[in-house]
Amino acid sequence: MSVTPNLHPAEISAPRKYPAPRAVLTLFKPVTWFPPIWAYLCGAVSSGVPLMSAPWLVLLGLILAGPIVCGMSQAANDWCDRHVDAINEPYRPIPSGQVPGRWGLWIALFVSGLALGIGWLLGPWGFGATVFGVLAAWAYSAEPVRLKKSGVWGPGLVGLCYEGLPWFTGAAVLLAGPPSWQIVVIAALYALGAHGIMTLNDFKALEGDRKMGVNSLPVTLGPERAARVACWVMTLPQVAVISLLFLWDRPWHALAICALLAAQFWAMRVMLADPKEKTPWYNGTGVLFYVSGMMVAAFALRTLGAGG
After folding, report:
1. Residues 173, 126: contact at Cβ < 8 Å?
2. Mean pLDDT of 248-271
3. Of the four listed, 29, 34, 209, 284, which is most buried by Cβ atoms within 10 Å?
4. What was the pLDDT predicted at 2?
5. What is the CATH number of the domain that holds 186?
6. Containing domain of residue 142, as a range?
């Protein structure tokens, strides 16, 4: 959920026939793998099932959520965004020529198939979630659907697939069945809040989005208003989580999330002073407090016995 370093101009040379190995890794944006990995782990913790009772399910799920499905979605997005990246980030692997021709498309399609194969190993719930995640990745980036053109549906789908879906999957895989309604509600709230995080992430593509007709909230509302909307969207679901934890007699977990939300308020004040310049900083600070609250909530659900 932060900006990935681009390839250095010196690395751009004569046209290539095959992708450069380092460029392929850059295409998969490893820095973006953490959120779904973390969310899957939150789901596994919240299930109440001892993690070491099925360590291979935990490990395989973490790999699937991060390097495989999230990595595939980044490769698909880079392929579908190659014209936008030529404006915003010309040193990205595809516009720079480090991943030449249609290699970006073939890589994304191959890893999509790999994801489905690995998802099959996680049982029906894991496979179903993987199918949803793969379809969502292409629906977000590819025409004619290309949900990323919408400042509402695009960030909402990414938030769901980064936080809600992996959380649900981690719990469902370990439980070998549907999670409790408490787990579903908490996962859905954090997925909703992630819509705000995704809106802030759109700031880095502001100029290219304007030129290419991508109606992100920073484009349609302007940076200042979009940043304020993002802050409200991040805050309100966390307030709901805190309220539910108090209701479920988990006051210490609720107070811990209150403290983390207060830290986010400080980071939001800094960011709102200059949204265009400070959103990358916020993605590295305020978001850390947000995802820490996710794990606190997961342990609250675990102690609540809310697995299934």
Report:
1. yes
2. 97
3. 209
4. 42
5. 1.10.600
6. 19-304
